[in-house]
Amino acid sequence: MHMKLWAGRTGGDVDERLSAINNSIGFDRRMYRQDIIGSIAHATMLGKVGVVTPEESTQIVDGLKGILADIESGALEIDMTCEDIHTFVEATLTGRIGAAGKKLHTGRSRNDQVALDIRMYLADAIDHLTGLAKELARAFCDVAEQHLETVMPGYTHLQRAQPITLGHWLMAYAQMLLRDIDRLRDCRRRTLVLPLGSGALAGTTYPLDRPYVAELLGFDGISLNSLDGVSDRDFALELLADLSILMTHLSRFSEEICLWCSWEFKFVTLADDFSTGSSIMPQKKNPDITELVRGKTGRVYGDLMTLLTAMKALPLAYNKDMQEDKEALFDAIDTAELSLSVLAPMLRTATFHPEAMRRAAAGGFINATDCADYLARKGIPFRDAYGIVGRLVRHCIERNTTLEALPLEQYRQFSTAFDEDVYPAIDLLACVNQRDLPGGPAPARVRDTLAATRQALAE
After folding, report:
1. Which of 2, 35, 430, 437 is 20 to 30 A from 112 in CA distance terms?
2. What's the pTM?
3. Are 115 and 264 contained in the same domain?
4. Choosing from 278, 279, 339, 353, which is the catalytic residue?
């Protein structure tokens, strides 16, 4: 068994139950790459400032590079009996290069070391998640471009409200993803602040060159208070909050797909590769994928609450409670990654049903507002026009017909202002085309939104 890094004040041997609750290698082993790269930068800096000799610095760096290569090739297996990944790397290094390996930890603490590892890991995760979010946003754009004139009902209160297009609906989610991407990028900027050099809480007496380490690791700057550098996780909370918002958007989309797959809507059919069946009902084709994304959203919310609760009453500086950050972070990252990665191909392979959407639009009187606007343009006050059209709709419902199919003579029973030009005014696609403001559902405006969105994704 490897010696504990903190052995000395105590013997290092502990009750196995303490090890079970204290050891973190079961989950922090996934940060091996960040731990080793951070240590390479630290050792390089130690050689530069003369804390270790150039020869020792080179020996340490080469040893660490060898460990990284062996882990990634499978030649070296991480020892799960170690307390954490930091212990494993340092012990392996010392075993390979001897006494020089024991100098790696000079001028740093596990407190600032783990803070560095987490920041590096999260920055890498943000880059990956941003790429996945971009891919899903591109999928929304690509499918939207195919449906710029696919008329469907827009809803409020889950009631058919006004005519839009499927392309317009899809681009709403693309806009949400653009904001998610922007939040992730902003979070990354605050994550890349170097804590190394904060020590356990009060820095170190060694002449460390912190800006040099930040430059080596691609950080934007260094922390300006050693207490803060090791004891806060607001950057991690920010990421969890950002992922919670992202998952909210994915869950809302998933909920609509679940509804639309039902026979009551039948606006979309998912490909067989992204559907499941029933163990007892042979007719069933279930949208499990979107139900699971909707359900997994709650996990990410829980991860945010886990870390908020862990941090809410901690005195400065580091406390062992903060070890609970990693499992919540890793779970949220994994969940968001899986959700993003599965929705893009699901969307690209889905079959939308324009005819069902058109029927729903025609049967929902969603052109009633346009009919009232028609009367208003004829000089009738809008509030009076609203009442006239409301009575018209009731008349149509009683006769199981629609505004488009109602004969002109029946229109005239409600107002003599109606004329033949009412029919092109209430045509569903015409109603969409008339909503020709920036951000509106008119096909030309959706094309503008598509172009702007694709440009933003390219940047």
Report:
1. 2
2. 0.91
3. yes
4. 278
